[in-house]
Amino acid sequence: MSGAAPGPGSGSSPAACRFAHYFVLCGIDADSGLEPDELAVLYQWLEADRHGKSQDAANTTSGENFDQSPLRRTFKSKVLAHYPENIEWNPFDQDAVNMLCMPKGLSFRTQTDNKDPQFHSFIITREDGSRTYGFVLTFYEEVTSKQICTAMQTLYQMHNAEHYSSVYASSSCSMDSLASSTDEGDTTSLLKLQRYNSYDISRDTLYVSKSICLITPLPFMQACKKFLIQLYKAVTSQQPPPLPLESYIHNILYEVPLPPPGRSLKFYGVYEPVICQRPGPNELPLSDYPLREAFELLGLENLVQVFTCVLLEMQILLYSQDYQRLMTVAEGITTLLFPFQWQHVYVPILPASLLHFLDAPVPYLMGLQSKEGTDRSKLELPQEANLCFVDIDNHFIELPEEFPQFPNKVDFIQELSEVLLQFGIPPEGSLHCSESATKLKNLVLKDLVNDKKNGNVSTHNISMYELLKGNETIARLQALAKRTGVTVEKMDLSASLSEKEKDLKLQCEEAELRDYQLNVQLREVFANRFTQMFADYEAFVIQTAQDMESWLTNREQMQNFDKASFLSDQPEPYLPFLSRFIETQMFATFIDNKIMSQWEEKDSLLRVFDSRIEKIRLYNVRAPTLRTSIYQKCSTLKEAGEVFRQRLSAVDIVAPEPHDFCAERQVDTQSIEQRLMKMDHTAIHPHLLDMKIGQGKYEQGFFPKLQSDVLATGPTNNNRWVSRSATAQRRKDRLRQHSEHIGLDNDLREKYMQEARSLGKNLRQPKLSDLSPAVIAQTNCKFVEGLLKECRMKTKRMLVEKMGHEAVELGHGEANITGLEENTLIASLCDLLERIWSHGLQIKQGKSALWSHLIQFQDREEKQEHLAESPVALGPERRKSDSGVMLPTLRVSLIQDMRHIQNMSEIKTDVGRARAWIRLSLEKKLLSQHLKQLLSNQPLTKKLYKRYAFLRCEEEREQFLYHLLSLNAVDYFCFTSVFTTIMIPYRSVIIPIKKLSNAIITSNPWICVSGELGDTGVMQIPKNLLEMTFECQNLGKLTTVQIGHDNSGLLAKWLVDCVMVRNEITGHTYRFPCGRWLGKGIDDGSLERILIGELMTSVADEDLVKQCRTPPQQKSPTSARRLSITSLTGKTTKPNAGQIQEGIGEAVNNIVKHFHKPEKERGSLTVLLCGENGLVVALEQVFHHGFKSARIFHKNVFIWDFIEKAVAYFETTDQILDNEDDVLIQKSSCKTFCHYVNAINTAPRNIGKDGKFQILVCLGTRDRLLPQWIPLLAECPAITRMYEESALLRDRMTVNSLIRILQTIQDFTIVLEGSLIKGVDV
């Protein structure tokens, strides 16, 4: 709570250890009378602005909504009193407390309405993240002011007149579904209206709501609830309380201490003692909200899903008619996050006047009160793309798209189900939660039973018989009594009732104990999941800074956690969730706290978590099970429950009972006194205060006006717990003073600390108090700054991860980003863009703000198409070749890319379309350009967005587009790799070398394009047409092209330079170099060739590539190299023996590295085998070294000729060896070798001799046979005839070295692309 300056009665330092900080009374101010709620007026102003209406129209009503009956309108409540006046370290925020005590303002009722008291709690999160808890009991008091009753009657007369005149007219409603819903339909007749919604001063009694509230530093919800209910009971009881109410309020404010960690506390309310307990320093932190209710309200499955959304820091909106349900679910779920903490906006109860908070473009957890009968479809929420909507009352949740499941979800739910069933709770939850909904009513009924009267407002007593009339036992007693002539009405039931009271009290205490035990067990199960998942987290924390100052100063530039290594160490099923979770702010803060623990006292949650991990290590001695996905149940349930039971059974801190309690409880007092002898903390009991005569006067049904002077300050005498807390405070002061002098100016240090700890947070907790339009505008400025900062950090992270540190610094090395991480970062970027487009939004169609904007832009552009062409930019380059054949330019068009997405039947939602469009634009390197074009239509932007929206802040918008432009420096395949089943149009062009080839060919050519996801099959190319388009299912990244012809006609020979293939959606163009002839009797006689592809870089991108020095992808074999191998020219320099051996080592090393990467991160194995610097090329160079004259009698000689001679020799000769085992092995190897070569020769394919050698190497590598075949060929007699003596194959040491190198890839399972070995049956 912030804002107020310290005032009188601010108390002394020990007050930090008080159980409660403030007691507050809220209600109607009789002097001011009925005032419309100013916040409601402000809200109407904001809504008018949102819908583009004039503010004057909004102001004319001055908060008077004549459509609503006066009893249902919002009137201003006030803080009538609060004690003490102020506390220095927790200043009293009057506006926030008033708003949260009475979120709906004052409520009025008549004697015909339900006036049951209602309990709810709230939380105020300060800007520094610390929290204060409020516990409120709202009840109804009779209005005694004649002025207010008259005002209400006048309002009703105006309302009836207004409603009668418009009963048949159609009424317009803006956003009433969010703020309020009209209580009467338009068709309601005036007669019905007057009968059921009227107030007559002469006939009706008017009641108004009043709230009593305790504000505490810790969430002792049950204890505060009991204390407040006892206060209420004292107010409504026939008999005045034993002491004036001031005694009890003074006692809880000044004399009841906070129980120290690991202790329990017993203090006294008006009628009975209250016990609370606080977990020890090594236990899970305090949580007093019953998780049973949260699980009953949502059901187990739904709760785990919402819990996952909270972990991934999505926007979570809770929706319920009941404020306490909102708090129970919000606090329950955040409690289960241990050891992590929610780091963003947290407002479990959002007053109706603060709905503009939902416009916040940041992760939030908010609770919104629903009106009875308001349908979810009527809610106009600004942002829905990343929203988790939780309708608590209807047991229903809406999840965001692209939602990863929690690891081991099925086993996790099963374990939780077992715990719930032990306590008799159905895992599916209770749809209407009858038990939870009626708990307070039952409690109130119990109070009424105890008081033997109606505890609300009635002036007459009700007999016990009337209260219990529906009881079957009483009915049977009544029948028996009639027969015996006894009147039940007059029967003295006091003895039996006292027994029943004891039973009921025992049942309540037992139920409370079971709730506590269930809380402990459920939290242990959740904590155990994180302990298992992050048991090794410490090994991946990067601690580079030597001191805290340097770490804080450079925090933003530093990587604190080795994410890639951590993910590679995790079980595969965990990765979708973990890859996103480790990007969250709560995880970053957790790691920051770990690093800070080197220099500061360890964070309490971190300390408990680390101790649990240590325990696991002791039990398992670094068991390998930690890295498997095998589910491990929680083993500490019994132990945790036992600690709790022991603490409750041995109360540590006891406040003695008041002196003037009756003598019959002396036995209890003696036992308490005996226990007190062992106590080291004792609180003063409630006692008579020094009050003026006549004050503290009791009047049944009315909360008395409290005497301020006795409640404003605490006692002057210090008891033991006060002095002890003062000592602790002095110790803290010394530590603080020491920390101020460690070498860094304190103000600067604080600035660094706050910046470091809020890194990634766009805005800290928004204030609930000052809500003027100026403050709202300032808040939105902070949102804009935060969004820009987040965009800068995200794009920087994407660039660094994609390039890899080595590539950036040294100009080489492989990108170290994993496919999973890349997908996570892109999903995060999509989420950021949706939040930016949702900020300040006025008009939205559908759930995606970005797609809504795009659609409206598209509509406007298409309407103008008949006047002028829609904006089109030509592609940055035209693909030309020597032959002059080229790919036609692919036009760049925002609208065209939208149409591609709209044509994808696989995507069903607007959110999905927006994300697909972002991915496509990013892959095409057009995201920044497209968004700039979208925002260039200023009239549309002004129509869609409010003045303060991010997209209307010109300077920030330009910086934002610049940050997105930087992503063009790297290649993404985020569209191609995700939408794998869509149909994609491709365009291919075959480019011949016309100088050497025929201008026209008579044969029938064909082509087959293959990619990582499949191939097209053989497609016939129309004669003499070098260009064709075709459509097929997404092939992924293209890898190979098979091209050939049937050799028919006179002009059949064809010299192909290369083949170009382009994906017409993404614009990716691949070049497949050939530089070889296709035809019989020329080159190696091949009628078909397998070409290896390379992705072309656009001219515009080349400059960026040069700047960032990122290495290009590995190329396929060049024409020049191929021509030299086949000796078509002798001009190219041949590699020497050293270079060839180095090439073999490099090729094999690349394959080994390929298999050491996670499966999803591996590139194309085909390129490593058949591309430039691939294994086939390296072995070709080995076989070409020392090869005798390439031409014999004007005929080309190829490696395959040598292979065939070797086969002929093996098939006709039985070799003689000394060792029989060697004979068997060699015979087997010879037989296998001959079988493979013959299978390749007899395959129904017109492959040339070089192509056959490539297939042989690929098959030998796959089947681990190359190390057996090389020595056979080296010892074959044909080698002496075909190779010179200096050849590498004739050197025994080189051959043995080659065998050893090839054996290193035998451990891997090699799967060959189908296009490489098609038709070869081995």
UniProtKB/TrEMBL annotation:
Q: Name one GO cellular component term.
A: membrane
Question: Is the Transmembrane keyword given for this protein?
Answer: no
> Which intervals carry biased composition (Polar residues)?
1110-1139
- Give GO MF terms, alphabetically: guanyl-nucleotide exchange factor activity; small GTPase binding
Q: Where is this region: Disordered?
A: 1109-1139
Q: Which UniProt keywords apply?
A: Guanine-nucleotide releasing factor, Membrane, Phosphoprotein, Repeat
- In this chain the UDENN domain maps to 59-601
Q: Where in the cell is it found?
A: Membrane
Secretion signal span = none
Pfam families reported for this sequence: dDENN, DENN, PLAT, RUN, uDENN
Domain named PLAT is located at 984-1092
Which CDD domains does this one have?
PLAT_RAB6IP1, RUN1_DENND5B, RUN2_DENND5B
Q: Report domain RUN positions.
A: 820-980, 1166-1315
Membrane among the record's keywords?
Answer: yes
State the similarity comment.
Answer: Belongs to the RAB6IP1 family.
Q: What is this protein called?
A: DENN domain-containing protein 5B isoform X4
The organism's lineage is: Eukaryota, Metazoa, Chordata, Craniata, Vertebrata
